[in-house]
Amino acid sequence: MSHFSVLIPADDVNDLEDKMLPYMENCVSQPPYDYMSFFDKEDELQEKAKEIITEESYTGRQYPESVGQTLLEYYGQGDFDKFCNEWAGLNRDPLKGRIGYWQNENAKYDWWEIGGRWSGYLRMKRKPSPASIADGTVGFGEPGVVGKPQRDPLCCDWAPVSWIDWEGMRGKDFTKALESFRAVKACQVEAEAMDVQAHLGEFRADFLSLLERDKNWEGTLHEYTKQRLLGRVLQRENIFLWGDDSLLALSEKEFILKQKARALTFAFVTSDGEWVERAQMGYWALTTNPNEGYDAAFWSFVGELEKSSPNQRVYLVDAHI
Prior knowledge:
With 321 residues, the chain is α+β, with helices and mostly antiparallel strands. Helix content is 39%, strand content 16%. β3 (91-92) and β4 (99-103) form a beta hairpin.
């Protein structure tokens, strides 16, 4: 599972739901059929049903009594629809009349909530009036499972775009990121100073095991030992890179330039309903297909929205996939 932040311009919660709906995964709940495609599996399963179960097959090994029968005979007792349900977990769709399933090919999340793990992340330029809180111009969603209700009167989960202190937020995020970066680099310096030769024997068995599992791994025992020593120092400091070791290759100057331009949320939805993201989010916060122009696109979006529609509310959403 992964949580990530999304910034969305919306007039109210109903409008927010409409903006999120096209990107719902057909999992926890189901988006309208307008946003989904039907994946027809009937012809494929018709052919699969004819296969003879052998002793070497998975079914044959698990259920020896099935050997010699077709998959249709064993799983469906001759009933094709029963076979599809028992063997593939698929049923005949009432709308299409065919075996298959519906899925949103543009799915980005399976559930979301306003605020969540980022409750109070948006920070306003000045304290809102009681009237703006009472009429819902400014407000809070729900804190995440590890969060607490926000008490700072300058913080919120939604507000008009022109009320948000974008530069102040950028500066605060930068300060935290720089502290984290310096902690990583300190660990890197400490690990680099270690006597790798003295630790080769300690990691030799793990290295040989790695070569057995991954025939394409081209590193040496010396390189592997350096990685493990760095990992040990990072773990001691409770620093986790989550598979992203790009920080290790950056100088502080390079990091500062990159971080100052960094967007404040992982994704945003434009006023026209287009989803724009830093990368494709997967499980455990691992990403693919990075969008190199995302940071510039985020700040352009915020700047143009603030200029053209200063009273447009923006919501901070915690999305889950």
